[in-house]
Amino acid sequence: MKKILVTGALGQIGSELVPELRRRFGAEAVIASDIRRRAAAGNGDDGPFEFLDCTRIRQVQDVVRRHGITTIYHMAALLSAVAEEKPQAAWDLNMGGLYRVLEVARQHDCALFSPSSIGAFGPTTPPDHTPQVTIQRPTTIYGVTKVAAELLCDYYALHLGVDTRGLRLPGLISHGAPPGGGTTDYAVDIFHQAIRHRRYTCFLGPGSCLDMMYMPDAIRAMIELMAADPGRLKHRNAFNVTAMQLTPERLAGEIRKHIPDFVIDYDIDPVRQAIADSWPNSMDDSAAREEWDWAPRYDLAAMAKDMFDNLSTRLNPSD
Question: Cβ contacts of residue 202 below 8 Å, gap of 6+?
């Protein structure tokens, strides 16, 4: 039976990836793991859970061996803004953790999904319709770890026979997880603040354009890529994927269709603004469409409607 391990399972993506994997493959087939304890994180999800520090290879080996893992979704990482505050910790986790998980995947013949990001690009990357293969000279430690991770996964696939696959994820919008430490997290927080207070102060400028995707599309993309015919994959470790290009101003306009008196103002964070300015405005995801039939299901209007439908039932409006 297929057995799946998810590292970083209590994080922004893992907390939604695990339930979908369990829905598709069964609760007992998916082992959630994190360096945080499940109860402490408030996660009541049913199914196997392991306390796991992925920078400790013996812990990873033990979990993979005991559960007979065949596929690993390696989601444990520090996100962009947090990584800039803690660059040494970001390197230790983002690269040290990946290296150890790759080694265990090699030893136990596991397939591995490792997410990359638009953060793997930099200010000299072509900003519009960014090609699948292009200049990658990021200026953040997060971006450096993502480029290095792409190359390391390529090495393990080419020279060591590990079935590694990955996506360059854009900013992710979700109603399930609270805003975390990402540069694009304004696009999540803005919905929470709109429902509660009818206003939002954004840390990016009004015209900052970035690729975005709704979380259900991102989760589906990960699972579909891992199920794709390997014979079709030419760019297996870093597929560009995207669904929409948003600015804070454009997103605010869509929110006003649901909350007409919504107000947005700006208090720009220089660190996160610099990060956003170094990333592409839009990515060319034609390779993903051609090699494993990628296509998003949510555009801006569909995403915003679903966000309001879900968040309005959980949050308490101020009036």
Answer: 186, 190, 248, 264, 265, 266, 267
Per-residue model confidence (pLDDT) at position 41: 46
Q: Please give the CATH architecture assigned to the domain spanning 171-212+243-282+297-311.
A: Alpha-Beta Complex (3.90)
The model scores a pTM over 0.90: yes
Report pLDDT for 42: 46
Residue tagged active-site, from 142, 156, 186, 200: 142
In this prediction, the residues of the chain whose per-residue pLDDT falls under 50 are 40-44, 318-319
Active site residue 298: no
Residue 36's contacts (CB-CB under 8 Å, 6 or more residues apart) are: 10
* Alpha-carbon separation of residue 114 from 40, 98, 313 (angstroms): 26, 8, 33
Q: In the CATH hierarchy, which top-level class contains the domain 4-170+215-240?
A: alpha beta
